[in-house]
Protein 1
Amino acid sequence: MTSRSGVDAVLRELRFGAAPLIAAADLGAMAEADEARFRFVLDFDSAERWPDVAYDTAAPAARHDDVMRSRIVSVLDEAAQMMAGRAPAALRLVNGQLQRVLLRRSENASGGSASHRSHVGCCLLTNLHQPAEAVVVAIEAVTHESIHQLLYRTEQAGGNFCDLAPTPTFRSPWSGARLPLHSLVHASFVWFGLLTLWSELALGPAFDAEAAHARGRIAHCLFGFAFLDDDLLDSPAFPKASVDAQVLEAMRGMSAAARRATRGAESDATLRRVAAARQGAAWPAAVAAGLA
Amino acid sequence: MTVPRPSAEFEPHLVLLLYGDPSDAVTRALVEGRSQLGWPLLAVSTQELLDGTELDDNWTVAGRRVTPQHTAVINRLPLGDRLEPGPETAAGTVARQALWSRLHDELGRFGYASSLPTASSILGCYGSLLDQWQDLPRLVPGLRVPDHSAPSVPRALHGTVFSVNRWTPYSLGKPLDEALAAGLTKEARLDYVMPEGRLVHLAQVGDSMFFPNPPSTMTAPQQQAMVGVARAFAAVSPIRILEHAFFLGHGEPILYSSFPVPVLSGGHPLYPDLVTQGLHNDIKKRGGRRSA
């Protein structure tokens, strides 16, 4: 059975905008030690075969050429610097949870990232050389996968959050994809972490396109939480008994927090003005304040 | 038509009809048969809802105060669609998500709601055919759906295999080879074993229902089986207005789809009575408590 303290510790880690519990002097030392960089090993060449992906990560064709490697290294450097300046708690999570990142390419797979329960501390990033906005894609990907590592380690220490069977599947209110129960439970924590991540990053965008991207990500995260209770957790079809009670409570708590933050940031009285509020300069800060 | 007597006594002060398409059969039945509903009806178009309705503790609609807990809301807003941005701008998607999730929260405050928006539809629906075939048998134990296969639930299929776009609940698709030749994308593709028999529809509003196209070969046990499924839906489903399509052969009926728009039964002469009587009973019976 998962302990309340274990789940609470996870939730504390995911509130990237919350005031840190550590003294300012210690934070300064940590920031210096972080050196605004990722500490994980960049794995461009190992013979690791990643499970459950649509291509062979050990194949020579999956390796990036030197030009792409150089671009990816630059992207990751820039991503780490941006996180250090604007979401330092998220950078600390990444550096604490991710030890190795496989970087591969495939023409048969879309870009994306993956973690696996059998590879704790490690993740796979596919086609990071492709997106035009690669820096923000990289930030979200490494944060996303670091949250999975945190969840895996918490489960290793205190027991699985839920039944690990691959079926039945459930519709994710974020992606629309059909997910096994354990993936859906992890997704709830991941999307909450991404919500607090983007709420922080949106506070100081460097340019308009970045601000628009952050708004879109915040809105996407919030949308799923608007439906998590009614569409899933409260449905008679949802197997509540297969999810640890503390974890279920945490999922409801994250949903409630996201909905409170939404309502606080969009208190306008007509739907037209509610929609317009999301384009206002104050909206990301209001969401961030509601989550802190 | 099966119309059970109401057993509980929620008496709304008002029935608020939110509509997108004036020619929707439910909307037409309520507007044209408002005197049969038993309570005052206020019809509000999408445009009036967006711009002319103040959403506070009480709603103000065209200058009239509406108290949610004393009001039954009939949700006939646009079906909406999945979350993929499609041709819409990023800002448009963000605005749509804001409206969608705020409406979900607002309609949940009413004494009765014929449906709440879900993550896949503003009108509220059970999602794609794949979602329905995966989720509905858990909502209604014993319900039979076609044997099917998709990337998230890969299975070997035996028999006459068809492939259908999972987002088209009123299409049976095509034989597998034809569907593949026609370029059905893997994201949309859903393979299934075509059940024997013909399609029979069942229109349902709460506990009330009728068969708009009963075949002469339908046996009493088959009819009872479909009515039993619809009653099971009525007991647990937050979506109160549905049209079911069953395959009816020689044995147990097999549900193909459930949809909140009466595509087939809406034109039947009995449909307006089903809407007014069914909603009258359902509002009395289920009103005053939180939607399931």
Protein 2
Amino acid sequence: MTSIRLVRDDLRPPGPPPRRHLLSVSDLTRDDVQRLLGTARTFESALDREVKKLPTLKGRLVVNLFYEASTRTSSSFELAAKRLSADTLTIKSAGSSVDKGESLKDTAQTLGAYDPDVIVIRHPQIGAPQLVARVTDAHVVNAGDGKHQHPTQALLDLYTMQQEFDRLEGLHVAVVGDVLHSRVARSLLQAFALVGIRCTLVGPPALLPRGLDAEMTTDIGVIRDADVVYVLRMQQERMEAGSNYVPSLREYAARWGVTPDRLRPGQKVMHPGPMNRGVEIDPRVADSVDALVETQVRSGLVIRMAVLYDVLTGGPVGVRALAAAEVA
Amino acid sequence: MLYLKDRPGANIVVRGARVLDPVEGIDSVVDVRIDAGVISAIGEQLDTNEHRVVDGAGLVLAPAFVDPHVHLRTPGREDEETIASGTQAAAAGGFCAILAMPNTDPVVDSAATLGALVETAGREAEVAVGFLAAITRGQRGEELTEMAELADAGAVAFSDDGVPVASAGMMRRALQYSSITGRKLALHCEERSLSHDGHVHEGAVAAELGFAGYPSVAESVMVERDLALAAYEGQPIHLLHLSSVESVTALRRARAAGVAATAEVTPHHLVLTDDVVRSLDPNVKMNPPLRAELDRAALLDALRDGTIESIATDHAPHALHEKDVPFEAAPFGVTGLETAFAVLYTRLVQPGLLPLATLVERMTAGPARAFGLDRPCVAVGAAANLVLLDLEREWDVDAQSFRSRSRNSWLLGERLTGVVAMTIAGGAVAFEA
């Protein structure tokens, strides 16, 4: 394995440009965000065609490495890669050598030996994607690391809002729920700051992180003033018994649940999924026409196509680039 | 109470160094002669008596350092450190004496375990080592260790370092019983119900990165509790690795009220803040965690004014593979013996934040006083425990820099000023650059 890598390094021209990763929203500039949203829009228009597959990443290998249960994120990355004609390899920790106690470093290096172009990783621990970026030659995309970051979620949410409101700057979003344990909230907060969205965090006192530089309140009443109410999942699997962040899920639902009477008519509601109906979100809200949950899932596909394309090519995608790709 | 291998005393004349011993009131360029390991003369143009002559021109000769807080990982994790490698690292860092913590595997909670360490140190230790024994059996916080027997077997003090003594009642019993031994309790102050699962100081950085917070108050409520119990029982205590402004305030108040409390601070808490955690480098993960600038400034103030008398490295070696994991999965702790003086000289003395004499005092007399050890000094008749320092020379810290078996240093890749040119410990040369 080592010798193969050495040969390849020898053949590489001197001073290659730095590998592009997407590890955290904090690595992005406002221009990066605009470019990614624009690329996603281009891909979305391509998806209206009868044949939805683009040859753009033909011959590239995208490895999905998932250490946590995930339906929408893993399926969305896999489909995104396939729509761009990349080869995909999806590894889930259950049933893999991770079960046998293999360290993340060793797993990453093993997969790295196949020379993947991109490794998409979800992991329960903060900084796992950074470790993979350090020990492999692949472009690394963070699909969620612990409570830290979930950058593609934030991008797809921006994309969804832009589709809905035709603008981002000046919008006001209330993010409601378990902010403390939410990588989505942390990613959104940074993304909102980049594009000029005002954000109010709402939740029980112990679930609002102390020291966070943000507008925070325990008063659910304020959500009525927002353009979008973004409901976070009440992460029961992270609420250890007896930690007493809230007395009970029942009291949480009564006090902070997003119900029809707490919303303005027509007010838009988003949720990263999976939803706990009846806990953080009332089923009537979840099923209403103002809930953008399915739009978010569709946005997820095109945003992940855009991200895979962007880390590999590093440039804006235009009609000409797409056409050229199709000719090739 | 301190053990090292037998070596013949050196016969050396250090010629023309700037001799600095703040306690003895010396700061001048003179010669120092050592006969059979004992300082025999201090003065100008000393006879060499056919001794080895060491050219000290341009160098500083000071009392060698004492580190009250080291993890030698023996018994149990000799892959990470041994008494031999740890004391070689200490010698390379300019230390003549170190105190080893008992949180090994097994825990040093019996005379048999302690006896084996004492015996090994007598064979292997390059510099003097003192061993602390546990306060409670297995450091489980449930039953006191046999402190009288442990003291007879050579324990220098008692500590459950690594874990707090959770029960206030147990702490009180430990204070009462340890009084018959004349040995101090050295306390790791952490209220686990507040710090639980915390990896990073609770503040803006932890909130932004998503780490579970380990708040300052988790330390300071325990500091307050232990100071109150020490005052009530009239017993001295030593507070390990303080990290927060609240703890410093409590200590200052208690000392003013006459409580016999001493305390230590680590180089990393004096130099770094939680801001560096943004790198997600497991080598900046320690317990207690790096805190805010306010805390760092308070610790430095307390070190300057003597509220905190000792600098301790809390040298905590870890195997490479244990630190080569995501931040949250990594164990707490960093190495420090071989970089302590240089980093504090570079980051505090050179910018004018701490006088060199104060740094030397807090690395020698301070910790010696706290644990009732002989103070390394430059005085005629004293055993030679000296360090020769080159304060002009720079060096780059890299993985090859270390005598320690581990290299989990937060200073890898940094350039430091200040090189230990020679360490004389217990009268013999223990290290030479």
